[in-house]
Fold this sequence. Notes:
Layout (H helix, E strand, L loop, with lengths): L20 H31 L9 H4 L2 H26 L3 H31 L8 H34 L6 H31 L2
Amino acid sequence: MSAAHHEVGGALPPHAETATLEGKNKVMGFWLFLGGECVLFGTLFASFIALRNQVPDGPTAQHLFVLSTVALSTFILLTSSLTSVFATMALHRNNLKQVQLWLAITVLLGLGFLGLEIYEFMEYVHEGHTFSKSAFATSFYTLVGFHGAHVAFGVLWITLLIISSMKKGLTVVTAPKFYVAGLYWHFIDVVWVFIFTVVYLMGKVGP
């Protein structure tokens, strides 16, 4: 039996996600992809910083932001990063059930984060903070919304991985998929820490 067909309970090698050349290439390629994502988010951050004080007649960040809500969102997302770490640890123990459990919790936390973000946006719109209200509003929704879209994509991706793993199990072919999904989730968590700091904390403090 080839290494690619080792199932759960079999003798999967340590760090199965990079046990094959294909797995190593997937992980390396994904790191390159994340490098490109850093450039995109860097551009959005630079645009927001340049435009964050351009509020001619609309509500300002000091007026809009409720840090308690954003802090709760941050706590939920950072907790989901921890559960994804537990999933990777279970992957290294060749324990598919634990991988599925921790990833399912990660998905639920991600959905909770998205729910709070949608609620937050609805409150802002009610306050008159629409996408085209000001340069600040446009740059805010573009940056934070772009991140939210990444979270939604991650939730869908991980959900599909969980469903697929019920049939395919844990092998040196499927292990890299779980691993790079975990890297992606950590990336969007790190980006959120910067958003929380640059957008919300700096915005609440003011110029």
